[in-house]
């Protein structure tokens, strides 16, 4: 069955360092992958979308890579700030043609001042 | 742009009550909206896909008679939890997407509704 794995343990880093979050998937060949940020008690906020034919995508301090051979996406936040502390979700399009999203369980990022 | 408003933000009610949650796209038209349920520290679980002018498509295991979805206009979808019981208590989140049914555009989420059934 389809499976999306994100590190369930919180990632705790020092301000200014680069945070790297991992999203692995199995039994999937997604056409694209998305990353969202979710703060406690709020809905997710879209950050980046990367397509299967793209290796890397950047937006300001954010960078996403997509390796369809390894079935993995990495999400990087450079020069991290305490305000970056949140849960980050990866999402892949479903196996059917409706382009509905299947979400990972998210990784909580804590950036210490 | 692409703002989605969800109302109410929280509801506390007695068992047996029906609760309606509204999801509005404020500055764009959404032919497709999605309803999710999220338990603490868990992922978003898709409940149903709501298409304007047609019946919603429910995910396996979601009772359509329990969770009624109406998408009567391009900017409004509603989820009604009928005869709610304590096990229905959860965080319900809607999202809206630009483009048609098979669009791969990002989803824009509301801020969720915390439902507590006593």
Précis, in short:
The complex is a heterodimer of chains A (113) and B (118). In chain A, 0% of the residues lie in helices and 56% in strands.
What this model shows, in words?
The complex is a heterodimer of chains A (113) and B (118). In chain A, 0% of the residues lie in helices and 56% in strands. Chain A has strands at residues 3-6, 11-14, 19-26, 32-38, 45-51, 56-59, 62-67, 72-77, 86-93, 101-103, 107-112. In chain A, strands 2, 4, 5, 9, 10 and 11 form a 6-stranded mixed sheet that branches. Chain B is mainly beta and 118 residues long. Chain B contains no helices and 11 strands. In chain B, the strands form 2 sheets. In chain B, strands 2, 4, 5, 6, 9, 10 and 11 form a 7-stranded mixed sheet that branches. The radius of gyration of chain B is 13 Å and the shape is globular. In chain B, 35% of the residues are buried. The model of chain B has no long low-confidence stretch (mean pLDDT 91). The interface between A and B is medium-sized, with 23 and 25 residues.
List keywords for this structure.
heterodimer; A: 113 residues; mainly beta; 5-stranded antiparallel sheet; 11 strands; B: 118 residues; 7-stranded mixed sheet; 4-stranded antiparallel sheet; 0% helix; globular
What structural class should be given to the helix and strand makeup of chain A?
A: mainly beta
Mean of all residue-level pLDDT scores of chain A: 91
Query: Sheet bearing the most strands of chain B, described?
Result: 7 strands, mixed
**CA-based shape of chain A:** globular
**How many beta strands in the DSSP annotation of chain A?**
11
- Specify the number of helices of chain B: 0
Cα end-to-end separation of chain A: 41 Å
State the share of residues found in helices of chain B, binned by percent.
under 10%
- Could you describe the largest sheet of chain A, including whether it forms a barrel? 6 strands, mixed
- SSE-based structural type of chain B: mainly beta
> Which shape of chain B, going by the Cα principal axes?
globular
Overall pLDDT of chain B, averaged? 91
Distance between the termini of chain B: 37 Å
Low-confidence stretches of chain A: none
């Amino acid at each position: 069955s389809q499976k999306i794995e994100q590190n369930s343990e919180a990632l705790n880093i020092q301000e200014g360092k680069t945070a790297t979050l991992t999203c692995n998937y199995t039994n999937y060949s997604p056409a694209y992958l998305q990353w969202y940020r979710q703060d406690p008690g709020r809905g997710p906020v879209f950050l980046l979308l990367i397509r299967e034919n793209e290796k890397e995508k950047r937006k300001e301090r954010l960078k996403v890579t997509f390796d369809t051979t390894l079935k993995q996406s990495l999400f990087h936040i450079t020069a991290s700030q305490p305000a970056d502390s949140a849960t980050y979700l990866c999402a892949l399009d479903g196996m059917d043609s409706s382009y509905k999203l299947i979400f990972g369980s998210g990784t909580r990022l804590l950036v210490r001042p | 742009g692409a703002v989605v408003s969800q109302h109410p933000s929280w509801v506390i009610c007695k068992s047996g009550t029906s609760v309606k949650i509204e999801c509005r796209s404020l500055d764009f038209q959404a032919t497709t909206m999605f309803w999710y349920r999220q338990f603490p520290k868990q992922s978003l679980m898709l409940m149903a896909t709501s298409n304007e002018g047609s019946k919603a498509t429910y995910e396996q295991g979601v009772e359509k008679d329990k969770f009624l979805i109406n998408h009567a206009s391009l900017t409004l979808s509603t989820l009604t939890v009928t005869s709610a019981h304590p096990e229905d208590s959860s965080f319900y989140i809607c999202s809206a997407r630009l483009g048609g049914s098979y669009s791969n555009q990002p989803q824009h989420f509301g801020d969720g509704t915390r439902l507590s059934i006593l």
